[in-house]
């Protein structure tokens, strides 16, 4: 991962985001929420768990619940996630399964937009703003919303 300079670098309220690709879409996760990036191996399925829970794995002696973001975001599962972003919430470890990790971007709060009105309802539940990058839209994934949404099904 590399850090790229953007116009937000001079902004006093700039934040860093780890970029991740899920089903062809670029997402950003606050670097404060990310503990590590790893390749998930040896995932054990958990019977009767929510469909978004791929299972659990032992990562350096710690049990990590693996969440399939493709399933959670209804992006299909034509290819298996090849990487995971490790996060921690309320003392529990989670791995958010992604297709690929990208760069670390420094982006200014002033350039951040609210969710577009035409953003899919299922995605809007987990996205907390967007950045218009030079070539594509970066959707900001809210980790706490993701964790709260596991097992909740589609938006009504």
Radius of gyration: 15 Å
Strand content: 35-45%
Distance between the termini: 38 Å
Structural class: mainly beta
Largest sheet: 6 strands, mixed
What is the β-strand count?
A: 11
CATH topology: OB fold (Dihydrolipoamide Acetyltransferase, E2P)
In terms of quaternary structure, what is this? single chain
Q: What topology emerges from the helices and strands here?
A:
Blueprint: E1 3-4, E2 14-22, E3 25-30, E4 34-38, E5 53-59, E6 62-68, H1 69-72, E7 83-89, E8 92-98, E9 100-108, H2 121-124, E10 127-132, E11 137-141, H3 143-149
GO biological process, one term: chemotaxis
Protein name: Chemotaxis protein CheW
InterPro entries: CheW, CheW-like_dom_sf, CheW-lke_dom
Describe this structure in words.
With 156 residues, the chain is mainly β. The chain has one domain: OB fold (Dihydrolipoamide Acetyltransferase, E2P), CATH 2.40.50. Helix content is 10%, strand content 45%. It is built from three helices and eleven strands. About 4% of the residues have low confidence.
What's the gist of this structure?
The chain is mainly beta and 156 residues long. It contains three helices and eleven strands.
Give a quick set of tags describing it.
single chain; 156 residues; mainly beta; OB fold (Dihydrolipoamide Acetyltransferase, E2P); six-stranded mixed beta sheet; five-stranded mixed beta sheet; 11 strands; 10% helix; CheW-lke_dom; Chemotaxis protein CheW
């Amino acid at each position: 991962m590399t850090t790229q300079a953007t116009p937000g670098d001079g902004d006093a309220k700039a934040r860093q985001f780890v970029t991740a690709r899920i089903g062809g879409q670029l997402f950003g996760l606050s670097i404060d929420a990310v503990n590590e990036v790893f390749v998930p191996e040896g995932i054990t399925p958990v019977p009767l768990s929510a469909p978004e829970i791929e299972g659990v794995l032992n990562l350096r002696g710690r049990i990590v619940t693996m969440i399939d973001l493709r399933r959670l975001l209804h992006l299909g599962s034509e290819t298996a996630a090849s990487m995971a972003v490790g996060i921690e919430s309320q003392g529990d470890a989670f791995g958010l399964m992604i297709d690929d990790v990208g760069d670390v971007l420094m982006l200014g709060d002033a350039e951040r937009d609210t969710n577009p009105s035409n953003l899919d309802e299922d995605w809007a539940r987990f996205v907390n703003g967007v950045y218009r990058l030079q070539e594509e839209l970066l959707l900001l994934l809210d980790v706490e919303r993701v964790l709260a949404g596991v097992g909740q099904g589609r938006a009504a």
